Model the fold of this input.
Amino acid sequence: MIQKDSNHVKRSKKKGAFILVGFILLIWIFLYYIGPWAANIPMVRPLLNFVEENDIDAGAYYYTDVEEFAEAEFAINQSMTYSPKKN
Amino acid sequence: MNENQEQAVVDSGKGSLSDLWKKEDYWAIWLGFFLLILGMIIYFPNAPKGAEEQIAKANATLKAEAKRAPFKTIAWYDASDSKKKPRATNSDIGKWIRKFTSNTHGWKANPLDAFYKSKAAVDAANAKAKPKYEEAKKVAVAALAKAKAAEAAAGAAGFKDEKLNAGAVSDIAAWRSATAKESKAKGKASVKPYNQIFYLIGVMICIGIFFGIGTVVMGRPFGAFFKGFIFVFIVAVLAYVAEDQATAKYWGIGYAAWAILFGMLISNTVGTPEWVKPAVQTEYYIKTGLVLLGAEILFGKILSIGIPGIFVAWVVTPIVLVCTYIFGQKVIKMPSKTLNITISADMSVCGVSAAIATAAACRAKKEELTLAVGLSLVFTAIMMVAMPAFIKAVGMPHVLGGAWMGGTIDATGAVAAAGAFLSDQALYVAATVKMIQNVLIGVIAFFVALYWVAKVERVPGQKVSTMEIWYRFPKFVIGFIVASIVFSLIYGAVGKDMGYVIIDHGALRGFSRIFRGWFFCLAFTSIGLATNFRELKEYFKGGKPLILYVCGQSFNLILTLLMAYIMFYLVFPEITAKI
Done:
């Protein structure tokens, strides 16, 4: 009985390892093929090219994680405090 | 007794003094405060020499130039640029901390580039990028000459000729854009070689010991924790590696999604090894990270763009949050209140960070947080692409478009991407509105925690005493709020200019943010390692979470656009004119 259980665990571990490798392969396919292919869809391409060229961290979660936010906040502060007087 | 009754608030809760060192919530506070105090000790005395004089000089120039011309002159921009240079993070210790605590580097085809790049490889990449930099430099020099000539011509006419003024504004904008491109090209042509492996091992040991101390005092063995921690840390590093891959980066798939995915793949295929489980401490990591996040919630920032920003971010957002929650309960009949509020906060406030804070405040299940993060990820990618395209197509003014995107796109990074893609003006407004919304997390977490212990978790009809509310209240939220109040007060006391030097670009961006990132990544890895895919599927039954998200976001889109238009164009057009 114990021998049977141990064989079953081994088989299920093996199956799990195969599934894990399969998923890793899927991730690899996404990162190397599907993602770049989808990024070439005309509606999407300009924005994603811009993000890549400017090295923007589009996945950041908080304002302190993004350099552009520091720039923007600084620029807005200057504009609000030292706004040129219009004619 | 069912699960709900077990969680119900009854007048029997008791606290004891030993909770201060035996409970995870308090440990999150002590550890978080320790890092915040350490950050202050390191950075507050390390403001660059002469920073105050440099800022004062720049302010004088800005004031004089603002009076001299009806537009932002070249000298105005030069003064502004010189003002933002002094940063405590540029001190020697700041640079060392950045180098030591960095996660992984960007890469495209070879994952090893995330950890190591030789001098030869870097030199080759720099040489390849150099011609582009030289070209950008030339363009910037030419643009500056043109801008100077245009400004001089406008000045010669006493800044009274509208046509000449407009010409100068346009040429100065072109020079700013060329300078920004030059700066980016310079960055790509001056990469330095790196070997992050030993630093990562150092970070792992430091963080392992850091959390290990609390683990020991709470009565769990250090050895078992640390052994498992090595595994959790390695999976967290892999999440950072995936985030730094070029495709993942431009699609905005951050470490949270990767950490959950990798953790889930392991736990649902080969299984999370037993010896790893002592280190799968989701709440411990998440609460400590949230106390650190509290310091980044600076209330002084909510006035950055004046009253319109407050209306768009602080009036619309709570309305959308409450309405979506009620809609979820009454109309969709969400099976779980905690899932409902986590998705509502995630969608209406600012995606993952709001979801983490709200889920922790109401003690949502890890599967519920996973679901909220997944929904946010998908819709952020869609909105990041669709919104700027729509704004461009209909010719919407960029201030309005920026406010709209800032108030509705979940992920902060995606707001930066979509805003910058439209224009600098759109980026400034979008980022500022989003930042003000980020600050709202503290208030929302506090009220959700309070509402949950006082209303949701009590037995129907039973009155709950103030003491009972205190016993049940998640204590780390107190640490989170205290950190926010203390840092807001310091920020207010030193003023915006010096706050930028020693807080924004010192204790926060140079210290607490780095550790907060690591702690959240460890937390999401732990969530994945403890999540059963079958259980997760149960939460999505009937597609109710998706319906809730779509309905809430549609309402958010309409209300934010309406409020932004009213505030920026009807009530405060003078503020819009300044941007």
